């Protein structure tokens, strides 16, 4: 059913304007973006199917254009491009928040930011947040992919990136596609190797965050740094 055919108090646009965006469910917000469904499949059903496909909004934030193209009703360019634009705006808004203030003023924001970028990758990704002297975000760089060990993550490359960004500190991060955020012995050893290498150029390692869908662990908070 098109949104215009719904009773006025059930239309997400009217509900948003009268009660605020917080009053809408995830499905209603997505339906508002999609506007129409497909033949025999209403826009709310379509919105729910999209959320189910990506296991919720967090998964949808990682969706690529090709991921969306595979969904019936999103094969055309208009809806898909609009949705991708909104998802990218969400990522950039969170990055701006971290660039504007000291990142550890909001540790949950750091974890959420890293989850958005890394948690649902099908393979392991090692990344680093490069920070200025006030611990504000300069850049997020994905540095290595694949099985992460001391032999596959090169300290020299991490040091060079830190120098390139004139970073005063870094937050290391990687994902566990297995779904657990418990750091391995290899993760702990890698952290100590990188901490020692970066100390030689006076760059501090503030944390190493391990992320998986729906969760994140700070090694600093666990006393593993």
From TrEMBL:
As one GO molecular function, the record gives: metal ion binding
The signal sequence is: none
Record has Aminoacyl-tRNA synthetase as a keyword: no
Residue ranges the record marks as coiled coil: none
Report the residue ranges that make up the MPN domain in this protein: 103-225
SUPFAM superfamilies registered for this protein in UniProt: JAB1/MPN domain, RuvA domain 2-like
User: What is one process in the GO biological process aspect for this record?
Assistant: proteolysis
Keywords for this protein: Hydrolase, Metal-binding, Metalloprotease, Protease, Zinc
What is the superkingdom listed in this entry's lineage?
Bacteria
Could you say which protein family the record assigns here? Belongs to the UPF0758 family.
Protein name, please?
DNA repair protein RadC
Species of origin reads Ramlibacter ginsenosidimutans
């Amino acid at each position: 059913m098109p949104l215009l055919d719904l009773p006025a108090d059930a239309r997400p646009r009217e509900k948003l304007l009268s009660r605020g965006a917080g009053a809408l469910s995830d499905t209603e917000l997505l339906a508002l973006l999609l506007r129409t469904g497909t033949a025999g499949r209403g826009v709310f059903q379509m919105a729910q199917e999209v959320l189910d496909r990506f296991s919720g909004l967090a998964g949808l934030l990682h969706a690529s254009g090709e991921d969306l193209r595979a969904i019936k009703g999103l094969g055309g360019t208009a809806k898909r491009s609009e949705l991708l634009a909104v998802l990218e705006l969400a990522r950039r808004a969170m990055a701006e928040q971290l660039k504007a203030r000291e990142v550890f003023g909001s540790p949950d924001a750091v974890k959420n930011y890293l989850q958005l970028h890394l948690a649902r990758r099908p393979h392991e990704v090692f990344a680093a947040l490069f920070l200025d002297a006030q611990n504000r975000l300069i850049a997020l760089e994905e540095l290595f992919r694949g099985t992460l060990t001391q032999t596959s993550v090169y300290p020299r490359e991490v040091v060079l990136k830190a120098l390139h960004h004139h970073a005063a500190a870094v937050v290391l991060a990687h994902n566990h596609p297995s779904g657990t955020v418990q750091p391995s012995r290899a993760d702990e050893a890698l952290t100590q190797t990188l901490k020692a290498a970066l100390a030689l150029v006076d760059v501090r390692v503030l944390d190493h965050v391990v992320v998986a869908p729906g969760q994140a662990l700070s090694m600093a908070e666990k006393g593993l740094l």
